[in-house]
Amino acid sequence: MVKIVIIVMIWDVIPGYSIYKLLYYKIKYSGNKIGYKARIGDNTILEGANEISAYSFFKGEMGYGSYISSYCNLSSSIGRFCSIAPHVNVVSGIHPMKAPFATTSPFFYSKRSHRKGFTFSNQNLFKEINSLTL
Fold this sequence. Notes:
Helix content: 10-25%
Radius of gyration: 20 Å
Oligomer: single chain
Number of domains: 2
Number of strands: 8
Distance between the termini: 40 Å
Low-confidence stretches: 1-13
CATH topology of the largest domain: UDP N-Acetylglucosamine Acyltransferase, domain 1
Strand content: 15-25%
């Protein structure tokens, strides 16, 4: 009981981080180490013996024995026994790099309004988002 009281005292002073979230992570991801202010996306699967270090965000699947260092932002699938360095950000968007595209700007190949609702394209000419497996 004393352990829970200490946790409440520490975590109640962190803005936007509730004791309920801490307890939820401790129960759902028991056997894994979740760092200070680390966040985990919905439907994330941790196979076991995993670590998500301080200030990192992870959403996806992580294989046994893998870990993510501090200040990472990943939405991906990570295999077993992988280590991710600090400050890694995985951006899921991709850009065309070969002809017939003359630029990587989505103004020319995407009908999604990327910037202020403007585009030159009336159809999607390139698949912008792809899944990533590490």
